[in-house]
Design goal:
Layout (H helix, E strand, L loop, with lengths): L6 H18 L6 H21 L13 E3 L4 E11 L5 E10 L6 E3 L4 E9 L11 H4 L2 E8 L2 E9 L5 E4 L6 E2 L4 E6 L2 E8 L3 E2 L6 E2 L5 E4 L2
Antiparallel strand pairs: 1-14, 2-3, 2-13, 3-11, 4-10, 5-6, 5-9, 6-7, 7-11, 8-10, 12-14
Helix pairs in contact: 1-2
């Protein structure tokens, strides 16, 4: 299954691969060049197909659970002060998404979108600390009767397009798709102080399935 957020890139790359494959047909006698061109075409198509895949997920049930919004690896867990939406002390969990991960993002909790902001920025490597402050990103806040969760979609060195099909006032459901970051990135998620974090450093996360924390 290919994500709808990547149709534009996927079909453009597919068309490009078809042109290359068709063009290689006329390289009569140039076996090495033809082999390299066909190999490149196949690898490019497989990479694109793999990147924009969008598998179904089974989301754990629990009103107090905060579910991972992204596939990736937990590279940081630390106390923080989040002053835009939670407006107080919080715990930040940073998930790094490599180019081989599924890049579709999902809602971490059910509730109402109370905050949304798109910020233009630079494109430092996603795992660097300054990426959270200076890279292109979106900020999203969702609240329900158990509290508020704030998270950032942060573009990486290769990623140049953030998709977030979400607006203030929307009612969202845990585990449902809302967007993606194309070609490598990270997601920082903030939960209120006192929420019990359920993941550890270097742990792999699965969007829509891995429990990040449990609210009080």
């Amino acid at each position: 299954m290919i994500t709808e957020y990547g149709y534009d890139v996927f079909f453009a790359v597919t068309a490009f691969c078809l042109v290359l494959a068709f063009g290689s047909y006329f390289l009569i006698g140039q076996i090495v060049v033809k082999t390299v061109l066909i190999s490149f075409t196949i690898l490019l198509f497989i990479f694109t197909l793999n990147f924009f895949r969008d598998p179904e997920r089974i989301t754990p049930q629990g009103e107090r659970l905060v579910i991972s919004p992204a596939d990736g690896t937990v590279i940081k867990i630390e106390p923080a002060v989040e002053d835009k939406f939670i407006k107080g002390e919080a715990t930040m969990v940073c998930i790094f998404m490599s180019p081989v991960n599924v890049h579709v993002n999902r809602n971490p909790i059910s509730g109402t979108v109370g905050y949304y902001e798109y910020i233009k920025g630079e494109f430092f490597a996603a795992f660097e600390d300054k990426a959270s402050l200076k890279n292109e990103q979106t900020h999203i806040g969702i609240e329900n009767s158990h509290g508020r969760v704030f998270f950032k979609q942060i573009a990486g060195f290769i990623a140049r397009r953030i998709v977030a099909n979400i607006s203030v006032g929307d009612t969202v459901q845990t585990g449902k798709r809302f967007g993606m970051i194309k070609f490598g990135s990270r997601v920082d998620i903030y939960v209120p102080k006192g929420a019990e974090v359920k993941v550890a450093l270097n742990q792999k996360t699965v969007a829509g399935e891995t429990i990040i924390a449990e609210m009080k």
